[in-house]
Amino acid sequence: MVKPTILKDGTTLKILGSAGLASAWYVVANGLLDGTAVGAVIPVFGAIAIATTVPLILQQRAAKKLIHDRYFSMSQRLDALSEHTCIKIVNADGKIIEVNDKMLELTGYDRDDLLNQPADVMYHEPTPGLIEEIRSTLERGESWEGETGLRAKDGRVVYTQATIMPVYDSSGNVAGSISVRTDVSNTKALIEERHTAQTLYELRDDVWIIDSDTETFNYMNRTAETRFDVTRGDYRGQSLVALHDTDDTTKIIEACRALKASGTSMTRFESNLMGVPVEVSIKFLSGAEFGGRYLILICDISARVEQEKQKSAFISTVSHELRSPLTSIKGAMGLLLSRSAGELPDKALSLLEIAHRNADRLILIINDILDLDKIANGEMEFDRQDTDLAALVREADQATAMLQQRFGMTVEMSGVDAPIPFYTDPNRFIQILTNLLSNAYKFSAPNSKILIEVKDAGGQMRISVTDEGQGIPAAEQHKIFTRFSDMTNSDRALKGGTGLGLNICKAIVETMGGTIGFDTQEGVGSTFYFYLPKATSRMKTLADASFRRSA
User: Fold this and answer.
1) For residues 109 and 154, what is the distance between their CA atoms, to the nearest angstrom?
2) Which of 462, 488, 458, 456 is nearest to 473 (CA)?
3) Which residues pair with residue 183 across a beta bridge?
4) What pLDDT is recorded for position 221?
5) Are 463 and 530 in contact (CB under 8 A)?
6) How far apart are CA 470 and CA 439, in angstroms?
7) Least buried of 3, 260, 450, 456, by fewest C-beta within 10 Å?
8) Strand order of the sheet with strand 217-220?
9) Of 273, 277, 269, nearest to 303 (Cα)?
10) Cβ count near 119 (within 10 Å)
């Protein structure tokens, strides 16, 4: 039992070693000084001195080695801490007096940018009371722990998990603080992404993510999984056509391919999916890291469609019910104005003319509303027939003769000197052109000129109306063909109009296979034009078919 204790106890070894040295000294000294006057004193005192001083010397050396080893170990620990965490030291005045390289690397600052600056200079919009909470915690001699956002030099926000500890002076008073931080920005971003993913998964609208190369599903949210009756293991790597092969899904895939081929990034359209009316929004996300993806949002619009049907039915009913009595009222006023019931006082005639004009306006509004209802329901009828385009242009000019006189306009026509055989719906053509002419009259300068021009554009005919009016402000050009559009430089109350005419024109032209647009220059004037395809007449088609059969 003794041996292990001696071997483990360094102090015992030092005492035994010094005793051995003292004994050796005594023997040697006694032998050399034997018979002399000091022979009995020096060996004894020397042995005592050796026995007492050697252990002290050895103990001091051991203590120095222990301090060195501990200091070296602590230094290594501090180096390791500084290597992997951000450290900032603040003095009693709340000024930064030291930051380590890791802090500079994380935030992008130079050391000179931060030294002697207030400790909170790096905080990014701290929550109310955060700075005071940290200070009061340190003043109580306690450490503060929590998450803080640091503002980097380039404006980025870096989130860190911080431990801030008080530092004391020799009197035991708080003389500043030292903060140790770890970067948790990536962790925070991952948590936020997880929360976003959870939100997407619970959305009531379908969310699909489809690989643009393989056209297979990468992701579906809960609503989409329910629609297709699949789970994550079922749809991963499956194509949309494999899950549900219908015209509806084919239309969505074709829209995706068109986005990728054209280089555009987004499209939106209404369709049906499994018998449900939906609005489809597709965003093409191109990327080298993960390849291209289609982000598809499917919104169920059943409720909206039903509401629109009810509203449309109501408007249609009311408009029909209004048009019949209004037509009778207008006819009666027309008879009075024509003196069929005898002469009327001038004042009565003036009031009657105002009423007659407003009856005309009401009938136009009702007709426009009925046209919108037909367009919305796909019920607008067209009676295409062989006709003379030049004659239709002259008829539209005559139909707006009253407006020409009212606004004092001069109308010129180009390209209509000779007949232009054309296959179209004459009434719809005149409706389009009279709308464009009406706008040109209303928004042109008094006594200015209007040009109606017809040009052959290859497989199409171009019809245009050019005015010398105010032009359309650039900020308002985007709403020209929208319903109830009203320009800031117009006066609908004075000049009339419903704000529906151009929207209806666009719908009619596009339904007939054409396009409509405009060119404008503010303060100079505008040109509204539309193109209609040169459709083959029904008679010519039948004749050609008969000729082929007989041949």
Assistant:
1) 9
2) 488
3) 160
4) 85
5) yes
6) 12
7) 3
8) 217-220, 206-211, 293-300, 276-285, 266-273
9) 277
10) 23
How far apart are the C-alpha atoms of 142 and 165, rounded to whole Å? 7
- Six token digits for residue 280: 């489809």
Cα 308 to Cα 280, 300, 312, distances in angstroms? 18, 14, 6
Distance of CA 379 to the CA centre of its chain: 37
Q: What would the two tokens of residue 466 be? A: 């050019």
Total-model pTM: 0.44
pLDDT at position 71:
44
- Percent of the chain clearing pLDDT 70 (strictly above): 74
DSSP string computed for 468-482: -B----GGGGGGTTS
Least confident among 61-70, 241-250, 390-399: 61-70
DSSP state of 154: T
Q: What is the pLDDT of residue 174?
A: 83
Q: Which of 401, 380, 365 is nearest to 499 (CA)?
A: 365
Instruction: Decide if pLDDT at 423 tops 90.
Output: yes
Nearest to 270 by CA among 236, 228, 226, 304: 304
Distance of CA 224 to the CA centre of its chain: 22
DSSP-derived letter for residue 239 is: B
DSSP code of residue 280: E
Phi and psi angles of residue 533, each rounded to the nearest 5 degrees, phi first: -70, 150
pLDDT one-digit tens code per residue, 144-168:
888 888 888 888 888 888 888 888 8
Helix (H) or strand (E) holding 272: strand 266-273
Please give the average per-residue pLDDT across 339-356, as a whole number.
Answer: 84
DSSP secondary-structure letter at 407?
H
Q: In angstroms, rounded to a whole number, what is the distance separating the alpha carbons of residues 419 and 253?
A: 47
Which uninterrupted H or E stretch holds 171? none
Tokens standing for residue 368: 């426009």
The DSSP line for 92-124 is: TTSBEEEE-HHHHHHH---HHHHTTSBGGGGBS
For residue 189, which of 144, 154, 149 has the smallest C-alpha distance? 149
**Exposure string over 490-521, b if 16+ CB within 10 A, otherwise e:** beeeeebbbbbbbbbbbbbbeebebebebebe
For strands 449-457 and 410-414, give the pairing.
Answer: parallel
Q: How would you class 174 by CB atoms within 10 Å of its CB: exposed for 0-12, middle for 13-18, buried for 19 or more?
A: middle
User: How many other CB atoms are found less than 10 A from the CB of residue 282?
Assistant: 21
Q: How confident is the model at residue 453 (pLDDT cuts 50, 70, 90)?
A: very high
Instruction: Please report the pLDDT score of residue 240 as a whole number.
Output: 81
Give the lowest-confidence range in 55-59, 341-345, 500-504. 55-59
Place of tokens 């048009």: 323
Cβ atoms within 10 A of the Cβ of 538, count? Answer: 12
- Whether the per-residue pLDDT at 73 is higher than 50: the answer is no
